[in-house]
What does this fold into?
Amino acid sequence: MTGMSPKKKSVAKRGKSTVVVVPDKLYFRIGEVAKLCQLPAYVLRFWETEFPQLKPVKGQTGQRMYRQKDVEAVVRIKKLLYDEGFTIAGARAHLKQDAKVDRNQSALPFPSQPPPELARVRAGLQEILKMLKTRR
It folds into this structure.
């Protein structure tokens, strides 16, 4: 035994922050996500009920299949709860606020005039369309 009280042990455990590198895959099974994030699978299943952002699809066999964005959400939720000390309700509100900020981003600045190459391509396509119409 290290001589720490249970309270100190949990604080020491929370102090460790590990960086999770998410592999470039389309889908992850719940066991893979649990191992990546160092969480039990039951915690992931519980979080699915608490965080609307976390919606893994279920495969034909009923197995949960987490997408890249789901795994990133799990990592973010874990950081909020374990490292930053948020409650579940607080983390949910924080993620909701983040989503609102993302939606309020300004649009990409598009040029007011299309490039001249685009006009040339458009004219060429219109000529091809005319030729196809006359063939009928």
User: Anything to note?
Assistant: Helices lie at 6-15, 30-37, 41-50, 68-83, 88-103, 116-135.
